[in-house]
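Known limitations

Structure tokens in this collection are predictions and should be treated as such. Users comparing against experimental data should check residue numbering before alignment. To illustrate the layout, the record for Xylose isomerase is reproduced below. The input appears on top and the generated tokens appear beneath it.
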Amino acid sequence: MKEYFKNVSKISYEGPESKNPYSFKYYNPDEIIGNKSMREHLRFAMSYWHTLTADGTDQFGIGTMIRSWNNENDKMDLAKARMEAAFEFMDKLDLDYFCFHDRDIAPEGKDLTETDSNLDEIVTICKDLMKKNNKKLLWGTANLFSNPRFVHGAGTTCNVDVFAYAAGQLKKAIDITKELGGENYVFWGGREGYETLLNTDMEFELDNFARLLHMAVDYAKEIGFKGQFLIEPKPKEPTKHQYDFDVAAVLAFLRKYELDKYFKINIEANHATLAGHTFQHEIQTARINNALGSLDANQGDPNLGWDTDQFPTNIYDTTLAMYEVLKNGGIAPGGLNFDAKVRRASFEPEDLFLAYIAGMDTFAKGLRVAYKLLEDGPIENFIKEKYSSFNSKIGKDIIEGKIGFNELEKYALENTSIENKSGRQEMLESIVNQYILEDK
Ligand code: XUL
Ligand code: CO
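Generated tokens:
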């Protein structure tokens, strides 16, 4: 088989003392942290679209990326070359999983029939390469947003022909995800949202979106697809207002339409920050609602108001994200998908490796620090103590549902001194810093 990344050989763990940029400093896949290996904790995945398909195009200029597989002129030859390059990349980086949209891996044909047969041809190749290289599909998804037919949305479109097309495409995407043993299936609402309510029936669109998802649930049952369904929230982009705004909005939607037992949530860091939340806030919101499904590992730029999809390099954020994952008892069957792209000026193929190394090391470090923080318990103990007035006497009575307003009013009238204690935020932030700095 052709070699696509000739200048890079297998990346291995060399430890924090190494100065070799093509080595892991913190990600040591087989090192045991607590009860499982780093590999099992982190379940890293490659995003097919940003890694293989994207060419660096932006609103102001054409692509810049040097990618050897782009020499292929025929669309299907290009798709095949990409697929081979994908497995070489995963092998060299020791990535166990990948994620794709149907349109990332195979080109659209002249109609849905030809498109589906293109997909079938590539899926056969993919399945074979997965077996040979021992790689797994974390999740599949359908691209229901790039083609102009989805101008008014897919599940939320006003055009029934488009709704039917979306359902057909979705059915096929679930089929191939099952065929490849996908452990999850993601619904990110590409153009499910609106620009103006002057031309939008929000209630009708949401009802229809729920109808499409119910059909997906029924179809998964029909074919015996056991993967976890996930919704990925995002507050804006491409539409001004995306319906799946954030974790809380998605939970409310799922509960209203009785879809909550079938769906969990795929949380992306940059989507969280666009919604005005931290990544940790979104993960915790999902966790306490038993809805944490998977993570799209990336980061935004605090100075920019759009989805920059950068590789995660902020240890503070990855520490707090992994803290939540550990408190959740792990992320499986989800994983950490690098929904991240190299900058347009990082156009050499080597940059892809350097970017993944940066992201994987940053999450590995976050995992190590989070594990120690949880084991020693400075934050947990502080929080426990902070609410301790609810552990006994009248506090306990409230928790046990034994009393109401009358008893509480009596208590308040008799209690002449209320004393509060400090929240100690700065001390806690400094403890997190100390754990980050001390971990070697
Ligand atoms: C878009 C985004 C998508 C989803 C999958 O912002 O995050 O790539 O992850 O459709
Ligand atoms: Co994403």
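For this record: The first helix runs from residue 38 to 42. The radius of gyration is 24 Å. Please report discrepancies through the issue tracker.
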